[in-house]
Amino acid sequence: MRIAPGARVLRTVLVPAADLAGHLFFVVVVGFLLFRVIPGDPVLALTRGRPTTPEQLAALRHEFGLDRSPAVQFADHLRDLLHGDLGISYAYHRPVADLIMERLGPTLLLVGTATVVSIALGGYGGMLAGWRPGGPLDRSSTTVALLLWATPSFWLALILLVAFGSGTDWFPVGGMRSTDPPAGLLAATWDVARHLALPCLSLVAVQYGQYHLLMRSSTAAERAHPYLRLARAKGLPDATVRRRHVLPNALLPTATLALVNAGYVVSGAVAVESVFSWPGLGYLAYEALQTPDLPVLHATFLVFAVPVVVATLLADRLRGRLDPRLADQRGGGDDVKPWPGVSARAGRSRGA
Which chain regions cross the lipid bilayer (predicted)? Predict the structure, then answer.
């Protein structure tokens, strides 16, 4: 049954766009209300320790727009967002957009490295565990993965901080670079890598559990299919069967999880960056919370929340393309066509 072009545009473009706009508006409203209930006066916090008159405090509140009604403040906030203006930081007296761009690089370095390492280690470990479900390797590795998954990243970060910050000089426990950074590209890169090790390990350990458990479940499910028994009956080594037949199909749920997790990992890095004073967006949000610096808090909240919303909706839309079996199950084969590479791999795997 063919779908009319107008209905196709409505389903594939207009409905997702309206859904995304509704979610983003909800995020903006929640972020605005959330930071309005934080106890404390930003103006009093900024002038702490300095003699100020009531007239000066009133002038600062007028400058920051805090003397207006909440409805007017929200309207101004929404108008500025639509124009790409994130405001001026109360504490830094600089455009918030500039602060975000300065801190975005360290956060992407930390989150990107942790995500790649956790997918590689968790995927490989989960595939080995799921290849022989119920075996000694499966039981032991799954237990470790469950424990790591249940461990809060900030708690693990504190443990690593205490373990390596007490008299050891293996890994630095604060900042992104040494106070006196070494000269030369290789030496400077090694210096950043040493500072990155402990924050990255804190995030990798928690993410590893998710990818291990998902890959283990996917591998065990793929192993029960007849095409794998046929491949093994042909005399192919287990390593070849796993690489050529199991991995392409078992990776599909992992790819979806990685896409959804992208936003969550960025927001989850707040605690880890705060523990290790990693100069990223999380540490910027922690510093802004002390004031409170409302424009910075609003901006960092959006930076953390928007990727979660976009990634979740995008993963939901792309699941049928990543896995053709989902399109078949929901009868969407006419309007959701699988990517040729994925479809061909799945076909070759089942035709082994």
Answer: 12-38, 108-131, 143-164, 184-206, 250-276, 296-315
The contacts of residue 352 (CB under 8 Å, 6+ apart) are 227, 228, 230, 231, 234, 236, 244, 245
Residues in the chain with pLDDT values less than 50: 1, 330-352
Output DSSP code: residue 166: S
**Is the peptide bond preceding residue 292 cis, with omega within 30 degrees of 0?**
yes
| Rg for the chain, CA atoms, rounded | 25
The domain 96-323 having CATH identifier 3.20.20.70: the answer here is no
Which residues on neighbouring strands pair with residue 88, listed in sequence order?
95
Token output for 42? 């930003």
Cβ pair 214, 254 in contact under 8 A: yes
CB atoms within 10 A of CB 291: 20
User: What is the phi/psi pair of residue 292, to 5°?
Assistant: -80, 140
**H runs (alpha helix) in 174-323:** 185-223, 226-233, 238-241, 247-276, 281-290, 294-322
What tens digit of pLDDT does each residue of 219-240 get?
Answer: 888 777 777 777 777 777 878 8
120/140 Cα distance (integer angstroms): 19
Start-end of H helices in 91-184: 96-131, 136-150, 153-164
Question: Cα–Cα distance between 294 and 128 in angstroms, integer?
Answer: 48
- Residue spans of the domains in the chain: they are 12-89, 96-323
Contacts of 237 (CB under 8 A, 6+ apart): none
pLDDT reported for residue 349: 42
- Predicted pLDDT of residue 121: 92
| Tokens found for residue 228 | 């794998």
Residue 219's Cβ-side half-sphere holds a number of Cα atoms within 13 Å equal to 27
pTM beyond 0.85: the answer is: no
DSSP string, 63-103: HHTTTS-HHHHHHHHHHHHHTT---B-TTT-SBHHHHHHHH
**What is the per-residue pLDDT for 100?**
93
